[in-house]
Specification:
74% of the residues lie in helices and 0% in strands. With 152 residues, it is mostly helical.
Length: 152
């Protein structure tokens, strides 16, 4: 099976970005100019679209995996998705949906940490670090922790 057919088959089953496809072609030892032609053909035939990939990636990571914007943006940069496309895809996440995902994540972590997770400074610090490791911004985490402490 030639490289184009292999990638078309892959792209028909799941979303991929051009960066991932370039890596696959490199591992198949395809020359750079031939790889460019294959990717251009895949784009022309709508097998691959970085904007579509970024939108699906952001929905999946923000909604299901509950990642923060920072972590999602870093993952998109690692996949070599352009900054403009990544910014547009991240903008599609509604702020309220994003904030509720953060509160739900903190609620679940607080419940697993015990009764004093929100009551003590050390407990709140652990929750704060956990949310920061998921890619949420400092101000967002602080606001969510305040809301949880009030009982929201």
């Amino acid at each position: 099976m030639d490289p184009y057919d292999r990638l078309a088959n892959l792209c028909s089953r799941a979303e991929y970005c051009t960066g991932e496809l370039r890596d696959k072609l490199r591992r198949m030892a395809v020359a750079a100019d031939e790889a460019d032609a294959i990717i251009a053909r895949l784009q022309r035939e709508r097998y691959v679209d970085d904007a579509r990939f970024a939108a699906a990636f952001v929905r999946q990571k923000a909604g299901i995996a509950r990642w923060g914007r920072r972590k999602i943006a870093a993952a998109l940069r690692a996949k070599r998705v352009s900054e403009g496309i990544a910014r547009e895809a991240l903008g599609e996440v509604a702020d309220e949906v994003y904030a509720e995902a953060l509160r739900g994540l903190l609620r679940a972590k607080a419940a697993s940490q015990g009764a004093d997770a929100l009551a003590t400074y050390d407990g709140r610090t652990r929750l704060f670090r956990f949310a920061a490791s998921r890619g949420f911004l400092t101000a967002e985490i602080a606001e969510a922790l305040r809301a949880l402490m009030k009982g929201d």
